[in-house]
Amino acid sequence: MKRLLHAALAALLLAPAGSARAARLEITIAPQFAGEPLRLDSLRYQNAAGETLSVSRLSYLLSGFALQRDSGEWLELPDLHAWMDAAARRQTVTLDSVPPAPYRAVRFHVGPDAAVNAADPARFPAGHALNPAVNGLHWSWQGGYVFMALEGHYRQGAAEPGGYIWHLARDPNRTVVSFTASLDLRHDAGLLLHLDIASLLNAPRALSFTRDGSTTHSREGDPVAAALKAALPGAFRVHRIVSAAPAAPARPPVQPIDLPDKFTPYSFTMSRMFPLPELPRDNPLITERVALGKRLFREPLLSRNDTVSCATCHREKDAFTDSLPVSIGIDGRQGDRNAMPLFNLAWKSQFFWDGRAASLRTQVLMPIADHREMDLSPGQACKKLAAQPDYVEGFHAAFKSQGITPDKIALALEQYLLTIVASQSKLDAVLNGKATLTDAEQRGFELFMTESDPRTGQRGADCFHCHGGPLFSDHQFHNNGLASPGKGRAAITGETADEGRFVTPSLRNIALTAPYMHDGRFATLEEVVAHYSSGIHRSPVLDPNLAKHAGPGLQLSAEDQQALIAFLKTLTDSHLLP
After folding, report:
1. 103 DSSP β-pair partners
2. Which of 122, 249, 393, 524 is deepest in the core (most CB within 10 A)?
3. pLDDT in the model for residue 159
4. CATH number for the 426-576 domain, one of 1.10.760.10, 2.170.270.10, 3.60.21.10, 3.90.550.10?
5. What is the dihedral of CA 447, 135, 531, 546, to 10 degrees?
């Protein structure tokens, strides 16, 4: 004990005069409604207009953080951005390396500044708050970010629920939020704020979905956007200051799994317009492992009777699908889902139509064991491969340790699937100035990217909400108005709000991947577009992007439907085909 005290005293005496460790401030913003914690997808809240509403999405970007010293001077914290999202439970932003001192106020902005808003979003690294693959708030070819997305359902009296989509965006609507908060940052501290949606809807004037419209994209002169901007500063309130925020637990460094002593790094290529993906750091791409995974993908030894491989249901010539409504596995056994195309998986974080697999390495082993697909235990698969000398050699080249294990099969398959990238369609050539769209394709593109909003006189197909961006998918789960769709995501989460929700497939190569939907119910693109035009089945869990439209759909003309299909066909990537 004496030795420890002497060491501590020596460290104190040797420390430079006046030195102090930089402080850390954790700001947590908890969503509320009228002072109660916000419950998502709960049609239970009342606004001042007497409408009952729910919130299914609350997602926003913060920037421009600053702290005010007692002297009145503002300490700016540049280059700090935060993405907050209620469904993803992202509620905390950490201000690191704050000079230790007392502070009396905090300031931040909802939305990035004009320079960042106009910058190329593909430059932000994987995991960054402004990476579109992370936040899902960039408007892709329209340019700029959605500063705040507020979406959900509403009902007036006993009427059928409708949907609302309110997106606050565009540089003039960037909003500063500032409030007094006595913070002693001579040590770490925490600040808990509330964001009250009731205040956002009801002040300075009460907004009504019925009266003011169920959609806004913040175009110039839109009174709904103006009301949201005016109400936003007062919707944030200080709830509690914590004198010492607990230190975040240190994360152990990520170590590559079982890399061989000699390996060749694999060159991962992608479109310059794509956001940077978060490739698995514990399974870095190497040529030896990718090659092994490619061979395993086509290997019928992974099935019980050596007749079925992954490639059976995911054929290259069909953009890695099988052209069947639902897949047929071993012994002619029929599944209940349409085979999903396998490309651009590096940007996904949940797999299968219902998202039941949280990683590719988890997903790839499930069809092998499924009795309707390949019907072979992973352990038996390893024994069959171990009896093949060339596979023993292939695994030895791809992994440092000896032997063949299910984990190694999964890591190799994961690597191969991550390398399948679709990014060379006609539309990509157009965007690179190497091709032009026909009149019909151009009309279809405009319809695809245009909101349908009778309030402002706009007529569009409104596809970009779920299929926007260069990946043509938001990778989220939606109920898209199918009759009798099945449990969908609810079978995984147990949540009623997830009934009939399935993941948004990419529209790249859509002309090659018929039939469509999770159960292959639509044989042609014409049937798909007709569904969204006039075949929507309304229900309390219909996605707000569809529920905001009256009646059974968008009511597109026959000419507009054909133009939309013409555009969708420009998304075919012939370079992906064998």
Report:
1. 69, 183
2. 122
3. 82
4. 1.10.760.10
5. -90
Q: State the pLDDT at residue 2.
A: 36
pLDDT at 13: 32
State the pLDDT at residue 245. 59
DSSP string, 389-438: HHHHHHHHHH-SSSS--HHHHHHHHHHHHHT-----SHHHHHHTTS----
CA angle 203, 204, 207 (to 5 degrees): 60
Reported pTM? 0.92
* Residue range 287-418, CATH number: 1.10.760.10
C-alpha to C-alpha distances, 337 to 306, 510, 519, nearest whole angstrom = 23, 17, 5
Cα 479 from chain centre: 16
Q: Are 391 and 302 in contact (CB under 8 A)?
A: no
Q: What is d(CA 31, CA 25) in angstroms, rounded to the nearest whole number?
A: 19
Locate 2 and state its tokens: 């004496």
Instruction: Give CA–CA dist 46/49, Å, rounded.
Output: 8
- In one letter, which amino acid is 28? T
Residue 252, preceding peptide bond in cis (omega within 30° of 0)? no
Chain centroid, CA 115 distance in Å: 24
DSSP 171: G
* CA 34 remoteness from chain centre: 29
Instruction: Kindly give the parts of the chain with pLDDT less than 70.
Output: 1-20, 245-248
Question: What distance in Å separates the CA atoms of residue 570 and residue 378, rounded to the nearest whole number?
Answer: 40
pLDDT at 530: 98
